[in-house]
Each structure stands twice: as C-alpha cells, then as structure tokens.
Amino acid sequence: MNQLPKYLFLFFAFVIHLRVNAQTQLTERAEWFVEDRFGMFIHWGLYSGAEGFWKGEKLRYDNDYAEWIQYRNRIPKDEYLQLAGRFDWEAIDVEEWVLLAKEAGMKYVTLTAKHHDGFALWDSKVSTYDVGQVTQPKRDIVKELNEACKKHGLKMGLYYSHWIDWEHEYGWSHRNEIEPLSPKNYDQYWQEKVIPQVRELLTNYEVDLFWFDMWVNHPNTIVSKEQLLQLKNMIREIRPNCLVNSRLGLSIEEDPDVDFRTLGDNQLGNEKLDYPWQTPATVAHSWGFHAQENEWKSTTTLLRNLVGNVALNGNMMLNIGPRANGELPYEIEQRLKQMGDWLKQNGEAIYGAGAFDLPSDLHDWGAITAKETEEGKYRIYAHVFNWPLSKHLPITGIQQKPSRVFLLENERALLPFVYHEFETIIQLPEEAMNPYISVVVLEYDQKPTAQQKLVAKSVYGGYSLTPWNAYKFYGTATTEKAENFGSVPKHVKIKEKQQYFWKVNISQPTTLSFTTSYSCQEKKPTGSLKVKVNNHELSGSLQPTGKTVGEPKQDWVIDQFLQFSLGSMQLNQKGVVEIELEIEPAEGQELDFQWLWINQKESK
Ligand code: FHN
C-alpha cells in the first residue's frame, strides 16, 4: 500500500463501500468489480480458425456458437488441432485487445484460458494440449495478457471450462448422456486436469477473477459439490482476493462465499439484487468468431443494456471474438470505440454508480443510476434514452428539490427546472446532447429520499396505470402473459369484483380524463367499471370488444383489446391523489383488463 497511512486507506475503503451501499452482500474482495461495472470477455481458441464452418459445412446448430464447432460437427481431435495451422501467430498481438478494452472504457479483461475444447492458451505443464505445442517459438497467451493488463492498469480474469472438456478422456461432453461416464473416471479428469491446471494458473499469473462456466445445477450434473468446493477452496488458499463467479456451479444463495452471480448469456437484469451480478454479453450472437455473423447490436443498444444493468446494481462483460490473425470484425471494434467515447463523457454515471431507491422501470424515458460524489454530494443520473418531444423531462418520486440540474457533458450550463411535491420537471435543450444517451444530472447536498409507490408521469403527458404498478389491490385476478407475439398483450383475467389503487402526483388543479383498455368477449354490454378519485366517480358498463386478425391467411384470430373513454373530472386540489378502479364482470363472465390511462390537461 506504499506510503498511504492505514487510516486513510480505511477511510477510502469506507467511502467506496458507501458509494455502492445498495448492495448488502458485497464481499470486500468484490468491491473493485462493483465499482468497475464494465469488462471485456474474449473468446479465442482453436475454434477461431474454423470461423463457424467445417469442410464447407456450417455449424450444426442454429444457435451458431462458433466455439462449439468441434462438438457439433463431430470433428476428430487430431484434425481439430490442425486448426492451429490457420493462425497467423506473427500477427497476433494480445496487447491490442487490451488497448481496445481500455479505449472502450472497460476495466477488466477475461480470456478463455481453456474453453470446452480443453485446449490451454498458456504453456501448461499439466497437459500437452496447449498453445505451447503448436507455436514456435512457444507462445503463452495468458502470460501475454497478464503483462498487457498490468501495463495498462486493467484487471485480468480467466475463463476456465471445468465441467466440460472434450479433450480429456474422462472430461464431460454432452455425449456422455448416451455413453455414461462414471463418477470415478470423472474424478480422475478433475484431479489430473482441472485442479492442477487451475493451480498452475493461480500460481503463475496474477488472476483477479476466475470465470467458470457450468449452467446446469450441480445436483443434476456429474460434478459433485465436494469437487466444486475443492476448486473454490484452492482459489481461496492460493489467491484469496481472486473473485469466483456463480457458474462455478454454486449459487450465491447456496454459498455466499461466491463473489458474483453470472446471469444467462445475454440475459439482462430485471430486478435489483443485493449482491454483485453480471451479464455476459455479445455484440452479435456467437462468442467465438463466426464468418456469417449478422445480428449486430447497435452501440445505442449496447449502451442501454449497460446502463440498464447498472441501474439495477449489475455489471456487463462484453465479448469480442478475434479471428485467427488476431483481427476483430469491424462492427465490434466500432461499437467498442463508440462506447468508450460515450463513457469518456458519461462514465461518471456508470463507474461506482448503482441503483437509486425507486423502481428501475418507473420512468418511460430511460433509466436512473446514482451515487455519492467524492465531494459528499449526491447525484442522480437520468439516462435519457428517448429525448422527449415536449423537451420536458418528468422525474417522479424524489422528495427533495435538487440544488442544481445540468447535462453531464456540459456541467456549466444549468438546466431550468420546476419542483412540485415529488416531481421534478426539467426543461431540456432542443437537441439531445449525445446521439446515444444523454445524461441529465440532478445534484443534491445529501441523498434525497424516495417516495415509493407513485406512478411516474409519462413523457407522453399522462400516467399509465396498470395492474402491475398499482400500490394495492383487492381481488383474485391472475396475470396472463402476452401471446401471439404480443398481439394479445399482457393482461389480467378478472372473474369477480377487483379493485386497484394507484397514487399519482397532480401538480396543479386540473381536469383529468380517463381511458381504459380491455378485452371483453361477451355479446352485449354487461358488468361495470368505476373510477373513483376523492368524491368524484365515473362509471360505465363493460363493452363487447370481439375479435381481430393478427396476420392474413394464417387462421390467426385473436381476442381484441379496445380502448374506451370513461369521461373526465375536474380536480380542485393538487398533490398526491389516490385513483381507484373497480371492475366487476357480470356473474359467470370475465374480463381481460390491460390498462387505465389518465390525461392531465396541461396548463398554459
Ligand atoms: O457454452 C458456453 C459458450 O460457448 C460461451 O462460452 C458462453 C459464455 O457465457 N458460456 C457457455 C454457454 O452458456
């Protein structure tokens, strides 16, 4: 720790902890990981030389994970090894990948040291199936990565496929479902390859993170809990600060000593978690280089995904799949550099930032991240995905007035705003500041409190009240998922009297008009629907909505959801009001309810 006095270090550690205080189950080890938020994944190995094709045939699986070519296309091991001959070893410069990571604003790099093919990208003394055997002079890609990471100040992670190994006679392959492998033989693989290789990696390189890859629960696999613990304990013993992900095969719930949870491939977060977590993501679809990749995500999409995860206290590790000459597809390089440009301007809203105490899907214009600043202020970052046509940005649910509001890319130009109880309306400039996502900062002298359970004002000028954002309800309605590709929308099925209650903040006396959307398959008007606000009431009977057609000539007839106006009412008060909706189908009948929309007449 050089000359830094111990108390100062403790102080900084405390500050870092405060900044990410939304996460309660955070090990000290993992603080850097939560702070850093964004990393690079590299899938690169012999499979990169095949590029998703074998002897003219495309990979035999539509998911097109090019790194699976050996297994999917049943390639014999010795022929697979010959792929090394397609590599341009002279041209491969690991430092270039690290430099790209740095330029992209990524803070760590995780390389597939050994993927499912069992081929080691370091000079392994444990197995001859390694990069040292196919290069002259011998290359050690892990060592090169380690040196480059150190040189450029990034952390290094290693991916190690522990469960699956197609090289070792007793490593697991999906084929073992029809050619059984005994636990005894599997343990032989474990003790003579997994344990010594991971020990070798831990001992010879400065590994900050071990990324394992098993996506079936361990009781349903050949791997035993004892084996997993043996592996984890060895890591703890040799490199106590090295992080371990949940795809080791132990969830954080089962073993809180696991440092972070890895979600499914490209699975974005959908809830705040109180422990560190991460999405492994691709720019297109395949992890290893695939010659026919064509599902490139845009820079905007990738940035939205990153922001969305940070808004839920999550991380993202974005993959690159270099070719056998080390080059990257243009699209990957371009997206990463553009993300880096955005992060140079807006990284403050990502690094060390996390969720604020409001639901992350509250606002329809984008997402919120937040953190305490080094100067002791508190900043809420409104990531505006959709620059409102009205140029008014409504922020609902914060109980205090900000001391100042500005665009993160132009702190000197303060933005005018009005604050009414629980609602801050910001006057935006005509043009969005950034082509991807513009970040508006609301600064407070201390962390503001959140008013829970309010429905946010929409950028479309009203309030969307749904069964899922009601703060309370009475009744037994059940949620039905969207069907027919969403042309039958998500809704609730109501068979008997149901009441929903929402809270909405009205900034001034106004006229509110109400519209509802539902599907009712009765032949004539029946049942009732009532909206109550204070002493006002609007009511009507439930109208038949009939059917509609999704696509022609496909026998695709679906229940139709139609909207109905319920009228309007004059409210002479301002502040938080409770909206009640009571729906009562007639005896033996049912209604599929979707939403209630309130329009507030704007003042001049
Ligand atoms: O099978 C692997 C796949 O090849 C890739 O490495 C991904 C990355 O998350 N993990 C497995 C599938 O989930």
Mean pLDDT level: 94
**Number of helical elements:** 11
The tally of strands reads 31
Shape: globular
Q: Give the biggest sheet.
A: 8 strands, parallel
Radius of gyration over alpha carbons?
28 Å
Structural class: alpha+beta
**Kindly, what is the distance between the CA atoms of the first and last residues, rounded to a whole number of angstroms?**
61 Å
β-strand amount: 25-35%
Strands ordered across the widest β-sheet: 7-6-5-4-1-10-9-8
Q: What ligands are attached or bound here?
A: ligand FHN
Which residue ranges are poorly predicted, with pLDDT under 50 across at least 5 consecutive positions?
1-23
What does this structure look like?
With 604 residues, the protein is an alpha+beta fold. 20% of the residues lie in helices and 28% in strands. The strands form 7 sheets. The protein has an 8-stranded parallel sheet. Strands 19, 21, 22, 24, 29 and 31 form a 6-stranded antiparallel sheet that branches. Strands 11-12-18-14-15 form a 5-stranded antiparallel sheet. Strand 16 and strand 17 (423-427) form a beta hairpin. The radius of gyration is 28 Å and the shape is globular. It binds ligand FHN.
Which labels suit this protein?
604 residues, alpha+beta, six-stranded antiparallel β-sheet, 11 helices
Quick summary:
The chain is α+β, with helices and mostly antiparallel strands. The protein is built from 11 helices and 31 strands.
